[in-house]
Amino acid sequence: MKSHSIDIAGQRLSIRSTATESHMRRLADLVNGRIKALRAGAPSVPLPTVLALAAIQIADDLCELEDFVVRERREVAADVRRVATALDKGVAAVDRWVEAAAKPAKKD
Length: 108
Known about the structure:
The chain is of the alpha+beta class. It is built from two helices and two strands. The chain has one domain (2-102). Strand 1 and strand 2 form a beta hairpin. The longest helix has 56 residues, at 47-102.
């Protein structure tokens, strides 16, 4: 683990993480962006409330993304089942063709 120093809402935090420095900066920028947007819309709201609201917004985004991933996985699974069914039908058709081709021709 590496120690990272980031600023959140003007407060320097030291965080130990396996994440890269650039990833930690990205996270800090995301949080600070939410805080800035919330403060712009309600400048008199106390900082702890702003921090809580930012956390709720980010958690909501995460939940929406998790729901999206679940839906996409279901769609992909359904697509895979459809393709597998089509392949099974194709293989069965080829098997029938091979069997028919292997039969000796009828003599009249």
